[in-house]
Design brief:
It is built from one helix and six strands; from the N terminus they run E-E-E-E-H-E-E. The chain is of the alpha+beta class and about 70 residues long. A hairpin with a 6-residue loop joins strand 1 and strand 2. It comes from Halalkalicoccus paucihalophilus.
């Protein structure tokens, strides 16, 4: 079993414990990272935080329909 380094923290992690996150746009690879379980959990938390939609604007308590 090969060990790889985490792209997040640099620590060695067994290949079977690592997670690879790949980003592609229109079929072209943009980024790929191999992360240890802790850095992967941090990546998921950051992704959810940054991708969460902003609350819909309101006027006099009425929500806009988007």
């Amino acid at each position: 079993m090969a060990d790889v380094s985490c792209d997040g923290c640099g620590e060695e992690v067994a290949d079977t414990l690592s997670r690879t996150v790949s980003l592609s746009v229109d079929g072209s690879g943009v980024d790929s990272q191999t992360l240890c379980p802790g850095c992967f959990a941090d990546w998921i938390d950051r992704y959810e935080r940054e991708m969460r939609p902003e609350p819909a604007p309101t006027v006099e308590g009425i929500d806009f329909v988007e």
